[in-house]
Amino acid sequence: MCNCKEMEMKFEQLDQIIDKHKAERGALIPVLHEAQEVFGYLPYEVQERIADGLGLSMAKVYGVVTFYSQFSLKQKGRYKINVCMGTACYVKGANDILGKFLGRLKIQVGDCTPDGKFSLDSCRCIGACGLAPVVTINDEVYGRLTPEMVDQIMDEYERKE
Amino acid sequence: MKNKKRVQLTIDGMDVNVPEDYTILQAAKEVNIKIPTLCYLKDICEIGACRMCLVEVEGAKGWQASCVQKVAEGMVVRTHTPDILNFRKKNLELILSNHPAMCQSCNRGSTGCELKTLANNMDTEFANYAKNQEVITANQVLEVDEGISIYRDPNRCILCRRCISVCHNIQTVGAIDVINRGFNTVVGTTFNRPIDESKCVNCGQCINVCPTGALQEHQSLDEFWALMKTGKHLVVQTAPAVRAALGEEFDMPIGTDVTGKMVTALRMLGFHKVFDTDMAADLTIMEEGTELIHRIQNGGPLPLITSCSPGWIKFCEHFYHDMLENVSSCKSPHEMMGAMVKSYYAEKSGIDPADIAVISIMPCTAKKYEAQREELAATGYQDVDMVLTTRELARMIKAFGIDFPALPDGEFDNPLGISTGAATIFGATGGVMEAALRTVADVLTGQSSDSIDYTQVRGNEEGIKEVTLEIAGLTIKAAAAHGLGNARKLMERIKAGEHFDFIEVMACPGGCVNGGGQPQQPSSVRNWMNLAEERAKALYRSDQESFVRKSHKNPAVKELYKTYLGEPGSEKAHHLLHTHYIKR
Q1: Count of structural domains within chain B
Q2: Are residues B249 and B387 located together in one domain of the fold?
Q3: Fewer CB within 10 Å: C terminus or N terminus of chain B?
Q4: Do the beta carbons of residue A76 and residue A112 sit within 8 Å?
Q5: Domain containing B76 — which CATH number?
Q6: In chain A, whose CA is at the least distance from the CA of B189?
Q7: DSSP-derived secondary structure for A134-161
């Protein structure tokens, strides 16, 4: 699946991001954010480039990446499914919703389907408790879900590219 | 030091008058109160994270961490109220609840584990945390990382962050950091890869500052017992710094020179020959001094940078590989000794080098990694078969039940056990440079110079020590850096165009006497004394008392060149005593 040309371009973009922030104090976090937008996640090679570019140790970069939950070490899908497991959602049956996604996608939480289409994560409270239980897929929000609705939503997404 | 403003305060009802930049912890020491600490280590880790040293300050909001809180005029401090004592005990019990209670099988258990000492002193009750302990530590066993030099057991780690601080701030290597968050927090490498795959240079300073047994050298004793059973001819050598610190493991005062007892103990342990790395240090001076003179007279490349410290070598290979041609091609002294044992000594004594095992007792963890470098095998066999640290030697002596302090003095074996005062001071920062200058001055002037003591390059108050000398019409600008952070500063100055002729670098702050393989002294000792300086005194005293104090006057070295190697820098010397480096 390696598209080397595409990768090269992404790394060129990363170098530009690093150059843009290099002189700032506390450049690491903005660089990590933008790098994740480009690559979708933060693999070893990307962190290595960032560490070298900003003159930091790789252990430091990795430490920051693993501290903040918004940074990911794993490839994300084109459709990023995020199941809210906050208190309200949990009480309203978020566990069943998550179970439904796990069953359909046949992957673990935090992983991505082999075709790179879907990735599944759970999070703690996205602040939409009135809609509990809530799921987001990329920027779309789906509220007051039942396991049956998950099937409908997934059918719809499976028809998409 | 300028006259600092002093302040008056009260600690536990006692009046104290101290300089205004003192912390409460320091001020309390003045009235003989030792406030317990755990994460604090002077100059290295001053973050007030562990909360063991909390004290009550009248009028202040909440309790203050005395390791970082500065004193103030009129301050009223209470260090040991029942509430504080109870808090410290609970706090410690919580830390202990996430620490395996397996002190019997931990090397640190019997030698000054700071956590264990505190637990004993504070009367912690195992029953209070045992129940939680099973849940947390037994069910979440973290993987142990057994590197070639460094052994890391994250289960024993209490997250004090001293190791991270020394690695980042003092050594500027940054091989380890805090990974993850909350309950999952560990000290680890990037992507949790083995330490050997990181930029770790194996200096072992993290081991020296660790309050528990979480960081240790690679454990080689089992390998040694196996080697002993093979029936090989066992040749041991000891580095200069070992003799200045080994006694500490047997409760002898810091700075005691135990050379003679060490030699006796090594014989009792069953080594067939006991040689002195000091002899090879003299050899190093001959080779490196020749290299320096050659480079000065033939247009460089300058500066020549010393190569005795394998932590520095790996650092240079990682971070300054564009300057590797400046590094002397000389092997480190114990590798030179290994090569001489397997060539010169083997031939002389009629023993097949295949049947000889060279064991180096070193103050150093980086030497373990160094000994396995493929390029260090001049005779076709590894120059050095095994490296044991000062601590490991102490463990062997204890395992054998040898009453070390009571031992009579022994003498090194001939001929590779004869050395000079110049070699002895290799163990302290500036020592290699001083030894080299003694010889270079004589060679360049063609006379025996009376100036032997180059005190400008001694001591460890300054991170970089500089000296400019006029010798036989030549101006030699030299500098000695200790601690890799200081080495980095010096390298940056050179890259920026500053000229030096000769540079000594020691990876460890204070030089080998403070190496990563030396006895671990707890913060209760390190916070209040200059450990490296005290150990170095033993070496300078020994140098002062030596009959021969210049490497080129070592009779064994002269004999070696006359009958075996030819001239310093000869083809044979190059084959046996020199090496090359690898860009990493």
Answers
A1: 3
A2: yes
A3: N
A4: yes
A5: 3.10.20.740
A6: A59
A7: -EEETTEEE-S--HHHHHHHHHHHHH--
CA atoms of B192 and B243, how far apart (whole Å): 37
Q: CA angle at residue A123 from A120 to A124, to 5 degrees? A: 165
Encoded tokens for B52: 């063991």
To the nearest whole angstrom, how far is the Cα of A109 from the nearest Cα of chain B?
18
List pLDDT tens digits, range B47-77. 999 999 999 999 999 999 999 999 999 999 9
What distance in Å separates the CA atoms of residue A5 and residue A15, rounded to the nearest whole number?
16
Choose the catalytic residue: B93, B248, B291, B533: B291
- Check if B330 is active-site: no
Tokens representing residue B114 in the block: 């700071």
Cβ proximity of A16 and A39 under 8 Å: no
Query: Which residue, chain included where needed, has tokens 């070490």?
Result: A73
3-state SS, B512-533, equals: HHHCCCCCCCCHHHHCCCCHHH
Q: What is the mean pLDDT of residues B149-157?
A: 94
B191 → chain A, closest CA residue: A62
* Sequence-ordered list of residues with C-beta below 8 angstroms from that of A35, at least 6 positions apart, any chain: A14, A17, A42, A46, A50
What pLDDT is recorded for position B109? 67
- Could you give the ipTM of this predicted complex? 0.86
Half-sphere exposure of B14 (CA within 13 A, CB side): 13
Do B114 and B63 lie in a common domain? no
Q: Are residues B125 and B259 in the same domain?
A: no
Give pLDDT tens digits for A104-139: 999 999 899 999 899 999 988 889 999 999 999 998
What does R_g of chain B's alpha carbons equal in angstroms? 25
Radius of gyration of chain A (CA): 18
Find residue B116's DSSP bridge partners: none
Nearest alpha-carbon partner for A67 in B184, B552, B140, B293: B184
pLDDT of residue B62: 92
What's the domain range around A89?
A: 79-159
